[in-house]
Design a protein that fits this description.
This protein is an alpha/beta fold. It has three domains: 29-226 and 276-327, 2-enoyl-CoA Hydratase, Chain A, domain 1, CATH 3.90.226; 236-274, no CATH class; 346-380, no CATH class. Helices cover 44% and strands 17% of the residues. The chain has 15 helices and 15 strands. The chain has helices at residues 67-81, 105-112, 116-134, 151-158, 174-177, 185-192, 196-205, 211-216, 259-270, 277-291, 295-327, 331-340, 342-345, 352-360, 367-373; strands spanning 29-38, 45-57, 86-93, 98-100, 140-144, 147-149, 161-165, 169-171, 209-210, 222-224, 227-228, 234-235, 246-247, 250-251, 273-274. The strands form four sheets. It has a six-stranded mixed sheet with strand order 1-2-3-5-7-10. The radius of gyration is 22 Å and the shape is globular.
Length: 380
């Protein structure tokens, strides 16, 4: 049966808002690319159908997003949504070290601290980035190529599915650096972890969890090896206990090794080669499943599940924006500046005990307090 229908660009409506003005190729930037759909059964590409790849390109700062990069994610999600030929969006980062570690602390410290109105405007953009993921008109797969921490964890959690390199680590960082995981994690974690107490611990402890632990807790879709040895054999992340057993009543599978064992494993990891083929093949299978569904039925199903994630996010996002802005005059001012000056001091964190002692005395947040709690420059 032949079709007489010939699509005409001058007849089809254009629903795009953004062009390519928010995308780039040189770090730091957000990259936008369309790739032909792959049939994983044959390895052949399919004419006229695509995946969209939105990539955070800032490997030198562990994928942290600048203000302009946030705009790029918003533009990319909308651009993919309004493209009839796109089956799914793949959201990832460059390199094998980090997907995203949150906002760019250099930009935070040097521009946004003590400028709460400016930061409120920035957080409005961040909220728009999370919203753009949650309202994408195609499914969003988070291809977690490395660390997914802080705001990176939050935008990753907003995605529909996560396929992760087994070397990735997941967690928060805010309560140690002057912020809070109220950009989505406090809303998403209770849904994505087995218990509220696990969500509570993950939100404030800043403990990093391995991809295998996240998979065990059913918080990501799949963790897959990306490293090979010099024989071409796949090697699971040597830093992680990948044998499934119970020790002293606790499940050990997926936990990070410790002490000298961790140090030795880290050295081993550095000597391995990176290969994305296993991970990307798994993503191709997911996308192929999506391609072989009725598109509107699929998106109705996706959106209906997203609504549960969005419910609490929509309830809290506005007041979180203003609280985070106000906090730029106090704890964020201290935390981000401590992080940003780590090259001079050798430390990324303030003296928390001294801060609590001063606050117990009713000391105001002023330059004297900052001087007392900030790390001191290293001796030359």
């Amino acid at each position: 049966m032949s079709l007489d229908w010939i699509p005409r660009d001058d007849v089809l409506k254009n629903h795009q808002i953004f062009g390519d003005e928010h995308f780039g190729t040189e770090a730091p930037c957000t990259m936008f690319e369309k790739k032909l759909l792959v049939n994983p059964n044959t390895g052949e590409t399919v004419e006229g159908l695509y995946t969209t790849w939105i990539t955070l390109n800032n490997p030198g700062q562990y994928g942290s997003y600048t203000t302009e990069m946030v705009k790029g994610v918003i533009a990319g999600m909308h651009k993919a949504s309004m493209d009839r030929s796109v089956v799914a969006t793949i959201f990832t980062g460059t390199g094998d070290r980090a997907f995203c570690t949150g906002g760019n602390t250099k930009e935070y410290a040097e521009y946004y601290t003590r400028r709460p109105k400016e930061y409120a405007d920035y957080i409005d953009l961040f909220v728009g980035m999370v919203d753009a993921i949650l309202k994408s008109r195609v499914p969003v797969i988070q291809r977690c190529n490395g660390m997914r921490v802080a705001g990176g964890q939050e935008i990753g959690q907003a995605c529909d599915l996560t396929v992760a390199a087994d070397t990735a680590q997941f967690g928060q960082a805010g309560t140690r650096h002057g912020s809070t995981p109220t950009g989505g994690s406090t809303d998403f974690l209770p849904w994505q972890l087995p218990t509220t107490e696990l969500a509570m611990w993950n939100a404030f402890s800043n403990e990093l969890w391995s991809a295998y632990k996240m998979e065990r807790l059913n918080s990501i879709t799949k963790a897959l090896p990306i490293k090979k040895n010099d024989k071409g054999e796949w090697v699971r992340d040597p830093r992680v206990i990948t044998d499934k057993y119970v020790e002293n009543g606790e499940i050990v599978y997926g936990e990070m090794k410790k002490g000298d064992e961790l140090k030795q494993a880290t050295d081993t990891l550095k000597g391995l080669q990176t290969d994305w083929s296993l991970l990307d093949a798994y993503i191709d299978k997911i996308v192929w499943t999506m391609a072989n569904l009725f598109p509107l039925c699929e998106m109705m199903t996706v959106e209906s599940i997203r609504m549960k994630k969005k419910f609490f996010w929509d309830e809290t996002k506005v007041h979180s924006m203003y609280w985070l802005a106000a906090n730029m005059n106090t704890e964020a001012w201290l935390g981000f500046n401590a992080f940003n000056t780590a090259g001079l001091t050798g430390q990324r964190e303030i003296d928390f005990i001294k801060l609590r002692q001063l606050l117990a005395q009713g000391h105001p947040y002023d330059d004297e307090l900052m001087e007392a709690v900030m790390p001191k420059p290293k001796q030359q």
